[in-house]
Amino acid sequence: MRRALSIAAAVVLWCSAARAQLPELTPLEDDTPDAPAEGTAAPPVEAPVILEEFEVDERTVVLSAARTRTTIQEAPGIITVVTAEQIRQRGYRTVNDVLRSVPGFEGGRFEGNGWFDEATARGQPRTLLILINGVNVTESRSNSLSLDRKIPVEIIKRIEVTSGPGGVLWGSNALLGVVNIILKDSADLDGLLVSAGGGHGPGAQAAGKGHVAYGGELLGGKLRLFTALDYYTDKGAELEVDARKVLGVLPEPAPDGKTVYENTPGLTDFNSRDYWVSHTLVLTLFDTVTLDWFLQYEQDHRQIATGGALLEGSRRAADGSLVPAVEETLGNDSIQVVGLNWRDRFFDDDMGLSVKLHGTRFSVDEQPFWAFPPRAIDGVSALEDGVRIDLEIGQLFRYGANVDADVQLGRDHHLVFGGELFQERLRDGRRGDRLRQPVLIPGLADPEAEDPLAQKGIYNAQRCPPPGTHEVALGDDRVAVDFAGGCQFEERLLRDTDRAVGALYLSDEWKPLRTVALQPGVRLQLSDSYDPVTLYSAALVWNLVDKVFLKLNYAEGFRPPSFESTRINDLSISTVSFESDSSLQPELSQATEAELNAVVLEDLGVLRRIYLRGDYAYTLLTDVIRNVNGQFANSGERGIHSVEFFARADFRGDHELWFGGHFTHAEDSVFGPVRNFPNWVFTGGGRVLLFDKYLELSTVFTWVGPQEDINRAADGGVPLLGFNAVDAVDVEVNRIDPYLLLNAGFRVLRLWEDRLEISAFAYNLLGQRRYDPDFFFDDRVISRPQPRETWSAFGQATVRFF
Amino acid sequence: MVRALTLLSAITLGLVAGCVDIYRGAIVQFNLRRIDRSAPGEHYTLFAVVNGGAVPIAAFKVLSAARDCGQDPDLVADVDLVQRYDDGADRATLCGTDRRLGLVDKIDLATATLAGGVKVTTDVDLRDATSVFLSIEPDGDRDPAPDRVVMRAEIGDGVAPYRPQAIECRRDFCATLDPDDPEKPNDAMLFEQLCGDNIPTMPRARRGVRKGVLLRLPYADICAAVEAGEIAIVPAEDDTFL
Questions:
Q1: Same-domain status, B181 and B113
Q2: Same domain, yes or no, for A271 and A155?
Q3: How far apart are alpha carbons A710 and A734 in whole angstroms?
Q4: What is the pLDDT of residue A684?
Q5: Interface mutation vs chain A, best among B13, B238, B239, B242, most A CBs within 10 Å
Q6: Do A252 and A365 belong together in one domain?
Q7: Is residue B94 part of a domain?
Q8: Chain-centre distance of CA B25, in angstroms?
Q9: Looking at residue A637, what is its pLDDT?
């Protein structure tokens, strides 16, 4: 019923278009004025209506805004574009930094105390489709991708960010946003570029970075190449936990038991060195075939476990004394993305065709993956070795093909259509753990034994099973588990799986009038793992006057169930276990959006122009997948009101000021108001060029409004062995106060015949101690507010060799 | 003008039609320290008193993991399970992990058992709840009125209202004891057990949470009431607009 009414609203919008008397928009290619007829005066040259800085890459047939070239003013959606130059000017270090300053998004939210560092859209986690050169790199295990140092900003040509669902054009995971990261190519670099830098501060200790890139043409221009090698390293951030967690509940036998705290704060030590390495290649042949790849590897350490325990404990030495035991979780993860694309245009450029083959491989290796550090406590043997679980997902693939086409039909219709076919494959998802609770191994029962447990075949942490593969009884089920010595075992974490997906989409940009564009669209998505999904979209873009545009947009999106929620091994003897549901259906989004944007006050004194944008959207999420008491299920719906605004003023001399922000409010049918994100976020900055543009000063700020975090009060409960055994009733709803992140820096430009650039930036200059709330706003006891990094500084030099 | 109104109406219709119903339920956490296992044919129902009326929040049975749910005590800790109850559910269904609301409190360091805590969610708006009570109901009982009330808690904003009384009662009682009098040996023992550092402390008031202490019924004198557990209510409210 709701969908029908929304579509009806869109139809009504189509019928309400009005005529206007404005000059026809000039096509991109045809920017030369018509020659005047002989004997007549030349007609006045039309000022170009498409501004260069908003211009989309004209050599690419398909782009995220509308899967075809357009401008952000005219694109049927709420679009923000951040260019490579803006990334350098503002000192952005990661894609999260970029998204932190895009209205409607929060860049850099911790899940699991830094295990993931993700971005949210409209306050909701894991609702973004992340693309690299049009290839989906959102990992299907968790429907997410950390946007930290994984993708070096030096290789990014531009990032096109769409706020709102983008399911019709982009399919899976475009539930509330699309982040299309477009890599540089040979057009962006002609020669060799070398960059090196270093920095320090409690926010990023002992940091270093290197970037080497080459771009150029070979074989007389038939082959164009861009390649880059990137390396970043640091020793992590100094993070403070407000109370040390000694032991917390696990999902079994019940998720709401006692948590034990030691009520003293703790600070992470100087961590082991982390590093991120990547290689990028974009190779273009004959202007029609492009081979690109992004190969990335990272190793990072964390001294706070995902549940919030500071991994500092103690061990008993041989002489009985206590010695400190400091542990770290170690992650060795990687992504490899490869694409082979052929594209061309036909029939006097009236038709374009693009065929892309792609493959992505994700690898996760978290060994060791600590939950609690070793602690030597008299009378409690369970914590002597701590709680350590090792996770490994060796093979998580996505590979397939996309075919995209666009056809100009007559003057008024521009069809964009295509399809995709891809396979997702998961293999070898394994977990290593240590026996902590008794298990029954019927095959090892010895009726002759004296020990009653041995008679039954029961083994526990004090009586370990012999090494080998044994069948463990779990109720009526039997599961094979590999036991090593010392109660260590390995079992399936995720069941092997294959998921095939295919889709067809069609969108028509119809211009019934010169100033009005209507764009309906439809997508059919099919899979062997979930029911067919049909998505619709409808947009009206109305050029009201000159450079003022009104957009009305209805968009739908969906997010397939993650492999975590559908393929977790339920038959597990680990104490960290959830129940999956293979029949889960995709979550759906429907958004009704309105935007007014304008370019005003052009060429007014020192002012070159002002760009303004205001948006309102109401988004409905349905069939939301939740984890309720350890069980994943489609449950309930969520309504989100969001208002976004953005303003940018460009001044003569290339100075700029910009300001934006958003207000978001969400109501959930199961939890009520969703409180774990800020209602208000403001962001802005400015840039001035001094001394004949040799010196550039830049600043970026983000003010994040208050949020709420539901967790356990560490100072509650009852005394237990010198600690606090905190009860379920010691629940509290912390207010996470607003904070202001201020970054500032400078660049010295055009040195050494325009080859050398030196820059230095300080981040979180005010040294704000801030926290992230629980990612999913459930009251799992795994969380206290998650500490975030404070200030750091970084400087670098970049040299170009032409 | 007509066109503008049509446009506005269409947008408004779309917005209104898509809005999620306002939810004002609550998360209810409680600890049960002293509660009897459910007898056959009986279950517990938790009620909240809101605006003078009693509203059922949750129904459950307290079952022994070993004796009632057939779990091997050599494999699982000897704990009491709090399982969601529905009319007509058989024992095997009742014992399922999908019905697990929590466990009765139990601390056993020897077996590293740290059990306890129950959570239920409810659609009932409990922002104005003044008290909760637990009653024993016959299975299949259709009478909405509580049958046999066994526990009760007054609810306050972040502070269990009974606690100040309990502290006062205890202090009054301790004032009557003379632990140094050799002719009153019981006074010394009682003082050691109930007074000094063993006087209950006020729970720290917690923002966003309403709290109560569950007392066993009946009690003639509030000072002699037995504490059977605690309850905390987290209403669905967002206090961070600014």
A1: no
A2: yes
A3: 6
A4: 98
A5: B238
A6: yes
A7: yes
A8: 15
A9: 93
**Domain tally, chain A:** 2
Asked if residue A43 is part of any domain, the answer here is no
- A768/chain B closest Cα distance in angstroms: 19
Amino acid making up residue A18: A
- State the residue range of the domain holding A460: 439-486
One domain for residues B47 and B139: yes
Ordered alpha helix ranges (H), chain B: 2-18, 91-94, 162-175, 185-194
> What is the torsion angle, in degrees rounded to the nearest 10, for the CA atoms of residue A141, residue A143, residue A148 and residue A149?
50
> How high is the ipTM of this complex?
0.86
Average confidence (pLDDT) over B74-97:
85
Residue of B nearest to A630 (CA): B98
| B185 and B72 together in one domain | no
Of the candidates B3, B230, B239, the beta carbon closest to that of A729 is on B230
Q: Note whether residue B89 is domain-resident.
A: yes
Kindly state whether residues A302 and A409 are assigned to the same domain.
yes
Mean pLDDT of B169-185: 90
- Report whether A673 contacts A666 (CB < 8 A): yes
- Checking if the pLDDT of B8 tops 50, the result is no
Q: Which residues of B touch A252 (CB under 8 A)?
A: 97
- Cis peptide before A368, with omega less than 30 degrees from 0? yes
Q: Where are the alpha helices (DSSP H) in A568-647?
A: none
Q: Read off the amino acid at residue A613.
A: R
| pLDDT, position A376 | 87
| Whether B144 and B132 share a structural domain | yes
Q: Which residue has the higher pLDDT, A2 or B157?
A: B157
B19: confidence class by pLDDT, cuts 50, 70, 90: low
> Is A31 a member of any domain?
no
Tens of pLDDT, residue by residue over A203-225, are 999 999 999 999 999 898 899 99
CA distance A121 to A102: 10
The answer to whether residue B6 sits within a structural domain is no
The pLDDT of residue A60? 26
Evaluate whether residue B2 is within a structural domain.
no
Chain A residue numbers with beta carbons less than 8 Å from the beta carbon of B78 are none
Q: What is the pLDDT of residue A15?
A: 30
pLDDT band, very low/low/confident/very high, at B220 (cuts 50, 70, 90)? confident
> Which range, A627-641, B32-46, B181-195, has the best average confidence (pLDDT)?
B32-46
In a domain, A754, yes or no: yes
CB contact under 8 A, A9 and B11: yes
How close B155 gets to chain A, by Cα (Å)?
13
Beta pairing class for A128-132 and A177-183? parallel
Alpha helices in A355-510 (DSSP H): 452-456
How does pLDDT run across A672-704, given as a tens digit for each residue?
A: 899 999 999 999 999 999 998 899 999 999 999
Q: What is the pTM of this model?
A: 0.89
Strand-pair partners of B26: B122, B235
% of chain B surpassing 90 pLDDT: 41
The DSSP secondary structure of B80-140, one letter per residue, reads EEEEE--TT--HHHHTSGGGEEEEEEEEEGGGTEEEEEEEEEESS--TTEEEEEEEEEETT
Residues of chain A with pLDDT under 50: 1-2, 4-62, 64-65, 253
- Domain of residue B151, residue span: 22-158+204-235
| Count of CB pairs separated by less than 8 Å, A with B | 216
CB contact under 8 A, A668 and B112: no
How many domains does chain B contain in total?
2
Residues B181, B222, single domain; the answer is no
Closest Cβ–Cβ partner in B13, B79, B105 for A9: B13
Question: Which of A729, A730, A736 should be substituted to probe chain B, the one whose Cβ sees the most B Cβ atoms within 10 Å?
Answer: A729
Are residues B68 and B103 part of one domain?
A: yes
Q: Which of residues 60-119 of B touch A (CB under 8 A)?
A: 65, 72, 74-77, 79, 81, 97-98, 100, 102-103, 105, 107, 109, 112, 114-119
pLDDT of A251 reads: 53
Residue type, B105: D
Could you tell me if B154 and B74 lie in one domain?
yes
